[in-house]
Amino acid sequence: VSHKGRLREAFARAAPHNEQRVSIDVWAEVIQRTLNLHIDWRVLQPAIAPTVKRAAVSADGSVSFRDSGLIDYAKFLDQFTLQLARGEDAASGGRVRNAEALYAQLSAMRAVLELLDTDRSGSVSRAEFVTG
After folding, report:
1. Mean pLDDT computed over 33-46
2. Vertex 74, ends 110 and 85: CA angle to 5°?
3. DSSP string of 22-74?
4. Is pTM beyond 0.85 here?
5. Cβ distance 80 to 35 under 8 Å?
6. Whole-angstrom distance, CA of residue 69 vs CA of residue 56
7. How many CA atoms lie within 13 A of 111 on its CB side?
8. Which residues, 6 or more positions from 92, have their beta carbon under 8 angstroms from its beta carbon?
């Protein structure tokens, strides 16, 4: 969240024609370059930044959704603002909202931990964390 402004600026420079959507490759490159975290962001992408789906109506009236292969970077960044806002409200109302905010990001956290756990022991050692 602390790098959100820098990420938004980097995405804006990388997005074609001032759109708020970028390819998965561009998204991963911007995240890695801006945060200086050298992990495979493409592996984490499905858990933390879903692609935009486009609706298509066929001749018989049925609707299907097609993956655009693009990530709406504004939505991606805004999801962290919403989680933080819920967590800040919890300071005055208890810890339940903090737990809910963390649980909402469970799949993303699990994906990061699995990526860091290089020896597949089920836990991340200090050395794996530092190397990760």
Report:
1. 88
2. 65
3. EEHHHHHHHHHHHHT--S-HHHHHHHHSPEEEEEEE-TTS-EEEEEEEEEEHH
4. no
5. no
6. 15
7. 15
8. none
